[in-house]
Design brief:
Blueprint: H1 2-19, H2 26-51, H3 54-57, H4 61-93, H5 99-117
Length: 120
């Protein structure tokens, strides 16, 4: 249950931080947004189902939980790498007026994606 809370919280932060910037690299940051939003929604649904006691009725709950967290870890690792690439590219390819603010937001999004990939 703690993993679901960490995924939900850090995934939400990735989502917020990427959405706070102007997306200059839609292919890279689109995948990051897809991973963070879908992982947030699925983690939230799993957390609700755990809180309502569905894990007691389903025998394969542990398998589902393990598969979900394994896949989410791989997806967040790929999203963190792509977000890091977008962060590096934003130093030279973003308008000079926006570089400090967007660079800091992108660094924070990369950090939270890496933390999310480690599964707390």
């Amino acid at each position: 249950m703690i993993k679901a809370k960490c995924d939900t919280i850090f995934g939400c932060w990735v989502w917020i931080l990427v959405a706070a910037t102007t997306v200059y690299f839609p292919l890279l940051q689109g995948w990051v947004m897809y991973v963070s939003v879908s992982s947030f929604v699925i983690s939230f649904l799993l957390l609700l189902s755990y809180l309502f006691g569905f894990h007691k009725k389903v025998e394969s709950w542990r398998i589902l939980d393990s598969l979900y967290h394994g896949a989410t870890g791989i997806f967040y690792l790929s999203a963190a790498v792509l977000q890091a690439n977008a962060t590096i590219r934003s130093e030279s390819e973003v308008a000079a007026d926006f570089i400090p603010r967007y660079y800091q937001l992108n660094v924070a999004a990369t950090l939270f994606a890496l933390v999310s990939s480690s599964q707390c």
